[in-house]
UniProtKB/TrEMBL annotation:
This is Uncharacterized protein. Residues 9-19 have a biased composition (Polar residues). Residues 1-25 are annotated as: Disordered.
Amino acid sequence: MVSGLPRKPQSSVASTSPAVSKEAGGDEEASKLAILGTEADLLRDALRLHIMSRLVELETLGLLPLIRLGYDFGAEMTTSTDKLRFLGTLETVISTRPREQNLFTLGLLFYTMQKMNTYRPGLVRRCLGQIRRKLHLTINYPQTDQSAWLSSSLAALANLAVGGPLSEHFSSSL
């Protein structure tokens, strides 16, 4: 819910109080919006800290909710240690739940890693294993058409490598 609100720069949030912005702008709505933005920033930070303190418990979640948490809060993780800890937990969940892996989770995982500006070789290897499995299905069972899945996942992997946007490709392939 708060991920849609833009984060305020720390300097402007700390230096401007709601009373000052009300007097300066004369607009009560702008003052309320500034307060709402500050509260959203505080809520976002509190949620991120809570998530990072409960990483072991997050392994009981499904793969998709965990990837979604990374999508929502991944860019907000400030230290690379937090990012690596989160991606390590994600790698554990992926290795224990192979049936939950599909094209959507694969694409969302690549997009999440791209948004976090991190690269975890173990996660990419596991996704390459899924691509290899689909290729094996195509070779051994030609009646199963896996071409759309393969092209979409390879495009997602290529976009992760170059840092390009994934949204245009996945909206047309799903």
